[in-house]
Amino acid sequence: MTDDLAPILPAISWDTIDTVLLDMDGTLLDSYFDDFFWEEYVPKVFAEANNLTPQEARKALLACYRRVEKTLQWADLDYWSDQLGLDIPELKCKIDHLIQVHPYVIDFLDFLKNIGKTIYLVTNAHSKTLAIKLGKTTIGPYFHRIIPAEEVGEAKEQPIFWEKLEKMLGFNTDRTMLVDDNANVLTAARTYGLTNLIYVAKPSSRQPVRYSTEFASIVYFRELIQ
How far is the CA of 4 from the CAs of 48, 183, 208, 212, in angstroms? Predict the structure, then answer.
């Protein structure tokens, strides 16, 4: 993915979509909070607690993170509290002022509500993370249901997640849209059979646009409002 690549533009006919599945972190919410939290703030606190330099702590933690990528453990706050000896939910609350909704998200949710679509929040985020972020934003009431991956029992990067989710929700794969900022998630959904897939090319307000070479991409949700 690159910022100078011409994007694949979404070609959406809303008459053919009944259900919209939306990711949270990086898609609806600015991922700067999560990037800063895991890459800067947690290493700083971990370094202070373990007599390490910030650089030593960051290197050690990034290696720990990589070992559980694409699994439920990566998003499990209780797992990380146990692994690191830190109260991860409490640390998140200390910088929760950084939790922000992306531009045009509320406009898009209002649009979906007005045209009668069924809207689900489908996220790898842990239930404790959900509670913190929904408490700091106004997006929660828009969803017909909120499904964290821990409820499904699989991470979204696994095709079986989408099989289990379809059984839970009963959506039609041909008439369902998924919007996510994680290409691995979109690939897993496509492997299962979802075809209306949208990639968010600017998950963080502090990072440049990175269009997908495989999926229709948007920078802001206003591009989907017709």
Answer: 41, 18, 10, 11
